[in-house]
Amino acid sequence: MKILPLILKNLLRKKTRSALTIASIVLPLFVICLLGTLLRALEADPSGGKGMYRLIVRHKVSITNWLPGAYDPKIRTLPGVTEAVRMQWFGGAYIDQSAKNQFARFSVTDVDRFLRVYDEVSVVEGSEADWVGDRSGLLVGRQLMKRYGWRLGQKVSFKGDIYPITLELTVRAVFAGPDESGVYFHHAAIEEALPRVKGYVGWYWLKTASVADTERIPRQIDAMFENSSAPTRTETEKEFQSMWVSMLGNVKLLVGSITTIIGVVILLIAANTMAMAARERVTEIAVLRVLGFTKEKVLGLVLGESFALSMIGGGLGLGLFVLLLPGFREGLVNSPMGAFAAGIRLFPEVLALGFGVTFAVGLLAGLVPAVRSAQRPITEGLRQVA
């Protein structure tokens, strides 16, 4: 007699219990995949590899300290530096300070160099020349245009907090790229309103010629300004990104701990179901042994049922995750977490993790009941009433 029909019959014997067990695997596995995706997104390079050629030069003491604009020619003339742009976080508020109206707002000193440093970005509406040529021009991400319904030529006002000014800017160009949730404008607009900030920037963003230059140049720049009044810290774009993630705490440990706890909960639920099923069929298994079933077949029968439950639940969980991920990403893109959402995609390693959890649950949940059922003497099983 083939084992597979028996496994399927055993699964359908207690339909409600099987359905609840499968559901208890589907939802936790969905959460595990979601957490894994969020963690990978924090570490991912949304630029498609182009970020590995970029460096950030900031103040050594704190990112809130400014650097002199006079560093620009010294940095740009270093061998291996192909382009450099000076930038500053503006912050401020659009309409109000509510979470729904939060997005990145940067001023750029060297607007004509900006798209040469961020070469994965392209202008899809308006033109780069329109933005560069208008000192009050605004370069806006496509997703942001869609969120607020802005149009080319529209006036947009930002009320500053770091800078006690209100800027009225005009949408001149729209860009498309991995992260479309920010705006960029001329730093001259700030300098004209606040002459005291002229000559200072937040950080330098550099483009290098090769990976070897990316490894060498940071040491050169930091050594160059080591004894100045504004020492620097130069790091790769990935290191700069990791700094922001580290401000949230040990995210890896937190997500790893939650994932482990969820995995253990799934295992306990599945193991309890298999233990109950094995206890209910003690006499039945003894009869199968009398009819010629070997210990190996009994072992395969119980383990097969465990794997079937786990794989059905795991398959549904992974399918649900793949189906809902685009909508989840779209929701984040249209939220204050738009910049973070740029790194979210379907990671093969996350799907592999989900499959691994499913396989482990199927094996571990059914192993003990399967071994006990196979090793139990036939006479002992026949004495018991199922």
Question: How would you characterize this protein structure?
Answer:
By secondary structure, the chain is α+β, with helices and mostly antiparallel strands. It has 15 helices and twelve strands. The strands form two sheets. Strands 1, 3, 4, 5, 6, 7, 8, 9, 11 and 12 form a ten-stranded mixed β-sheet that branches. The chain has a two-stranded antiparallel ribbon with strand order 2-10. A hairpin with a 6-residue loop joins strand 7 and strand 8 (166-176). The longest helix is centred in the last third of the chain and has 39 residues, at 295-333. The chain is elongated and about 95 Å long.
Brief synopsis:
With 386 residues, this protein is α+β, with helices and mostly antiparallel strands.
What general form does the structure show?
A: elongated
Largest sheet: 10 strands, mixed
State Rg: 30 Å
List how many beta strands DSSP finds.
12
Structural class: alpha+beta
Distance from N terminus to C terminus (CA atoms, Å) equals 22 Å
Number of helices: 15
Q: State the low-pLDDT regions, or none.
A: none
The SSE order reads: HHEEHEEHEHEHEEEHEEHEHHHHHHH
Bin the helical content. 40-55%
Rounded average pLDDT: 85
User: How many discrete domains?
Assistant: 2
The fraction of residues assigned to DSSP E strands is 15-25%
